[in-house]
Amino acid sequence: MDVEAACPVAPKPKKRKNSSKPTLQEIALRFISREGNAGSCSIDENSGCSYTQVTCDVGNFVRHFRTQHPNAARKHGLMSEKDTGARKPRAIAKRLIAIDRRLLLESLTKLVCYHNLPLSCVEWEGLKQLMDPIASALDVTLNRGKNKMIIHAIANRVRAALGKEMKNILLSLKVDSASRFHRHILGINVQYVLDGKIVIRTLGMVEIKERQTAAFLKEKILDVIQSYGMSIEQIFSVTVDNGLTPKIWEFIEHYVQAFEPLDICTKKLQERHVSLSDFYIAWLMTINSVRNMFSNPFAQKLTKALTDRLVKLKSSQAFQMALFVDPRLNFLNSKLFNEDEKLHIQTCIKDTWNRIRRLKPSPSEMSANNSSNSNSQFDDFVTELYGGTLSKTANDATDSSFVQQLKALEAEPRQDHTFDVFKHWVKRRESHPELFEVAMVVVATPSNQISVERSFSALALILTSHRVGLGQDALEDILIIKLNRDIFEKEAELIDWDDLVSNVNS
């Protein structure tokens, strides 16, 4: 028996080929700046590369070094053997395309503000490979910092356009707040009539870091209003979320029959714009539906609760004015208001008309401003010679006509509940010019702050879990552009993009 054959010899451990030579991963780690799990490129400090990974993957970094820093990668031994030799650059055929700074920067702005890409998207390897040749040809520097500055400049243009659009008109303010990733945002909208249409504009999506007291929020809202060159005199109404969860409705929570009319009403009130008188009509329809549930044991109490709430709504000055100019509710022999209430509402409407007149120059004042002072000087000369004062019969006649038209509203024929009050007053623009202007303010007064809540949906698309570090100013700039898209589209036609780039670079 062969003893040697009976005693197996343990195999020798395999040695790593070129064990003294470091692996690619070991080399790559020397050029990765680590901060926790994150890593950033540091293979070529002079390149300004900002490539970063939230969770460091060395293999991806090796690929990045080879494709974006081939010379440095070759120098430090990160190239594979087949890549170490001199490689002839690939010849790319030139193409003639039409592009300018506006098209480039407008597209990048839309990527960030419309399509919710991060500011650093211009540093993504794929986009960078596509955009860099274009940016180089247009002499534009693209990086996260420049992108942020360009968007800030454009957002300021949108703000300026909004300020110009809102100048000298009465506005309805809508305010709400929301939280996302422990960041508290105050949303501020305005609503008014522009060129015969009700428009909603976003004035601010302001991050709040202090305690949200009433005084502090009031100060913040006033700061936003004043930043647009608006005065408190321009605010006609303020709509806020009162967190309406009346206890008196809790006991009907599980009773579908009684709650269904309220559900229908709630969905109606969530439309983009519901005027105060439409709100009132919808509420009346709900009351009518509930009170006709004769066999429902909760109908009587629920009807009383809805009616009591309607009485409180009717006590609001803005609500009273809206109902007064609505021929569905205020008509010949209507019992909606008593005589004292009518006098009070008419006074409020007159005050509103006076506010409108104070905010914008009258036609006579505009004519006087456009003409020379010779007429007024001559009038002063005649006064000096013969005494007396100039007549103001034109203004008196306007005031008299306005009062007559206001009182005539009580004699209007009644209209059915589907009647379009907005179109009704648009048709009276020429025949009732003063009342038309007041009516446009009143019918544009919102009954809810739904548009602000929808702004927070846009916030959720921008402030994602991967972008919680987005700065306060950059966040608001992006949202101002995103939520006022039509203003941006107009301003894009007017912006001097070369001048904008020069200002950003300076």
TrEMBL record:
Domain HAT C-terminal dimerisation, first and last residues per copy: 413-482
Location of the region described as Disordered in the Swiss-Prot/TrEMBL record? 1-22
Supply the SUPFAM superfamilies for this chain.
Ribonuclease H-like
Q: Which subcellular locations apply to this protein?
A: Nucleus
Question: Which InterPro entries did the record assign?
Answer: HATC_C_dom, RNaseH-like_sf, ZnF_BED_domain_contain
UniProt keywords, alphabetically: Metal-binding, Nucleus, Zinc, Zinc-finger
Pfam families (alphabetical): Dimer_Tnp_hAT
Q: Which residues form the signal peptide?
A: none
Task: Spell out the PANTHER family in the cross-references.
Answer: ZINC FINGER BED DOMAIN-CONTAINING PROTEIN 39, ZINC FINGER BED DOMAIN-CONTAINING PROTEIN 4
What is the protein name for this chain?
HAT C-terminal dimerisation domain-containing protein
